[in-house]
Amino acid sequence: MKSNVQQSTQEATVIDGAKDRGTESTHSDEPALVRFTSLITDTPDPDQADRMADMLLLFLAAGGTVLGTILGAILFLYFSMPQAPAFVRICALIVSVGLGGLCGCAVVMVVLHNKGMIAWEH
Which of 10, 31, 71, 82 is 20 to 30 Å from 16 by CA-CA measure? Predict the structure, then answer.
C-alpha cells in the first residue's frame, strides 16, 4: 500500500512538473516573432526558433528595403521627369533609392516593434 502511494505521489510530481514547463514556455519573455516562428516551424527548441526568427526578420527587412527602394525611385522619377538626364540627376536618383530602402527597412522594424513582434536589445 505504501509503495502504491509513493508511486502515485511520484507520478503526480512528474505530471505537475510537465504542466509547469508547458506553462512557462507559453508565457515566456520571448518576443512574439520568436513564438510565431516556433509555432509555424513546429520547433520546440527555443534556440533554434530564435535563429529562425532572426532569419525571418532579415527577410522582412529585406522586403521593406526592396519596396522602399522601388517607391523612392518611382517618386524621384515622377517629380523629375521634365528635366533632362544628367550626372547630377543620376546621383540624386541613387541617393533617393538608397534613402527609400533605408526608410523601408526602418518602417518594417518599427511596425514589428510596435506590434510587439520584436524587442530591442539593450
Answer: 31
